[in-house]
Amino acid sequence: MSTLRVTAERLTIHPHDNADALELAQVGLYRAVVAKGQYRTGDWALYIPEGALLPDDLIAELGLTGRLAGSGRDRVKAVRLRGELSQGIVCVPAAVRDVDLATAHAEGRDFAGELGVTKWVPPIPVHMAGEVVAAPDLVPWIEIEDVKRYPALFEAGEPVVATEKIHGTACAFTLAGGEAFVSSKGFSAKRMAIRRDPANLYWRAVETHGVPEAAQRIAALLDVDRVAVFGEVYGRGVQDLAYGADGKSERPGYAVFDVAVSADGGSVRWLDADETARLLGEVGLPAVPRLYEGPFDTGALMELASGRETVSGSGAHLREGLVVRPAVERYSPVTGGRAIGKFVSPAYLTRKGGTEYE
Q1: Does the keyword Ligase apply (predicted)?
Q2: Which of 48, 138, 248, 294 meets the CB 3.0–4.6 Å disulfide criterion with 237?
Q3: Which of 69, 71, 67 shows the shortest CA–CA distance to 52?
Q4: Closest by alpha carbon to 115, among 95, 91, 143?
Q5: What's the CA gap between 294 and 296, in Å, rounded?
């Protein structure tokens, strides 16, 4: 999931081809359906992204009572309105009508707290949960931002690598000082590890796929003392998309999407895409499918994010999307962290009966 921020944005307005009373307000590369005439190109408004939970008073003010997602009808989710994909909410609530939104944008002001908007956190199913312990040496996974929200994340023509984004649950594994730590994305952010339990989904995945042994080999090959391996655990019973695997079996589906290392207490180094692929092949760990390598092209990558999955080899169902990174790892001043982003398939966002466990 992406970072939740409610920000002031300058709008570009486009016509809605299928509805006379509606228009599309563009923020970054996102488009949200708005009432016709409500805004003009150049106007400033707040943008509330997908995955936000809205308080009841704001829902009522925006006229969205009963129209949002989730059991509480309070979660912002992508929808199709008259055939157009609408992502997020564009609005100017009463609380900010006297605010200079252009200045707020320049200052990077986040209105989430002021409006009572919080981030939706998916529930944790029993088979993914477990007893947790403090793990200060564990390397946490990071939030991957949507390129549609941050279109300047990559330079046009910059060499990039795009891999398939698998809809499972992220598993963070760290080998540090000879000790193995296993965690979920959410727990790892708190530097908490899941105590070993053969019934736990994450532990089953790393042990049956030989991740601890592979991490030891990586440590020896690179002469480091801390190795973090990040993989997606997937299959039936994990999420609604199974990729032909069985997450309830002894050996769930598992594919690595990132590796990071450090030595002697130094800073964490994320391996370049080619180095990661080479090492995974050498130590025998499965990798997420690589779907593209070449110059960054927004349109081409947005198109490639859709289609059928390639993980199972049979195109069993739709594709979630892509994860894009530079061919050579670098810092991004746009996000203040790694230059890494995602493109998500519109069909995935609007599918029926989808699950979003973290």
Answers
A1: yes
A2: 248
A3: 69
A4: 95
A5: 6
In whole numbers, what is the pLDDT of the chain averaged over residues?
95
Question: Rounded to whole angstroms, what are the CA distances from 82 to 21, 67, 104?
Answer: 11, 15, 33
CA neighbor of 127 nearest in space, from 249, 272, 291:
249
Name the token pair of 333.
Answer: 């001043």
Whole-Å CA distances, 272 to 28, 202, 244, 260, 330: 27, 25, 29, 9, 9
Residue whose entry in the numeric block shows the structure tokens 């970054």? 28
**Phi and psi of 317, rounded to 5°?**
-160, -175
Q: What is the band of 203 on the pLDDT scale with cuts at 50, 70, 90?
A: very high
Closest CA to 158 of 329, 342, 2: 329
Residues counted in the chain: 358
pLDDT of residue 245: 97
Residues 6+ apart with CB under 8 A from 321: 164, 165, 305, 342, 343, 344, 345, 348
Name every residue whose Cβ is closer than 8 Å to that of residue 333 and which is 6 or more positions away in sequence.
none
d(CA 117, CA 209): 40
pLDDT tens-place string over residues 116-157: 999 998 777 666 778 999 999 999 999 899 999 999 999 999
Global pTM reads 0.89
Helix, strand, coil shares of the chain, percent, nearest 5, are: 20, 30, 50
In Å, what is the CA distance from 266 to each residue of 101, 139, 315?
Answer: 41, 12, 42
Backbone angles phi, psi at 178, to 5 degrees: 80, 0
Q: Packing angle between helix 273-283 and helix 211-222, nearest 10 degrees?
A: 120
